[in-house]
Amino acid sequence: MRNFAVSMAYNGAAYHGFQRQDNGITIQQVVEETASRLLGEDVAIIGCSRTDAGVHARQFVFNFKTDSAIPCEGFIRAMNALLPEDIAILACEEAPLDFHARYCCEGKRYLYRIYTSEVRDVFYRDTALHYPYTLDIKSMREAAELLVGRHDFAAFCRAESLKLVKTTVRTVFDISVEQSDNITDIKISGDGFLHNMVRIIVGTLIYISEGKRTKEDIVCALDTGDREKAGKTLPACGLYLDEVYYRKREY
User: Fold this and answer.
1) The domain spanning residue 213 has which CATH number?
2) pLDDT per position as a tens digit, 196-246
3) Structural domain of residue 159, as residue ranges?
4) Against a cut of 0.90, is the pTM above it?
5) Are residue 67 and residue 113 in the same domain, yes or no?
6) Residue 121 designated active-site
7) Could you give the 3-state DSSP secondary structure of residue 188?
8) Strand partners of residue 246
9) Catalytic residue among 22, 42, 52, 242
């Protein structure tokens, strides 16, 4: 028995998220069916995270156990030949049998991309939020600093998901807001994220830019869990799982 740790990237526009579902095609379904066909055995992959419908990944890690003797290099080449063009295997290596892509993960970084030109770019249609206004980058950076650290992020979670988690306390390591021409990239790293947390954080920073929220509102949201003090939930199209962190190595 071998345990493969695999890194992949995908454009999630055509999928109903990562995890298998009854009502639509998902990344997990496509990868499992492709790997099962390649290896001649039933493959069940364990993902580092769940991504919602329309969300992308620049680095998504999964593991699976196999009796196959295929070398990692051969697995990468063969999978990329068989997978659809919006999913790519980036790396593969044999990991210890106790490696678990989700439970061994110590943190993640997400990217939210915003396209701020007045006229939409059709090539960013499914991969960035079109926001045809000027962003107040300075105010957004100042507000983002308030969210760094260990806080209760209940106000930054989808309401229906609150009852599904043991705690809403998370640690945000860093938030960066970088602008280049018409692209604004907001990167958020932390030890874990609640459902829609990144999309709500970025929505809050946009509200800060628009003057619809203040830094005092952010402090209040963190202190009280009042969802109304945070911002709107942005569309999935601009969100990417950007990097996954592990203690001993990065896959």
Assistant:
1) 3.30.70.660
2) 999 999 999 999 999 999 999 999 999 999 999 999 999 999 999 999 999
3) 106-244
4) yes
5) no
6) no
7) strand
8) 105
9) 52
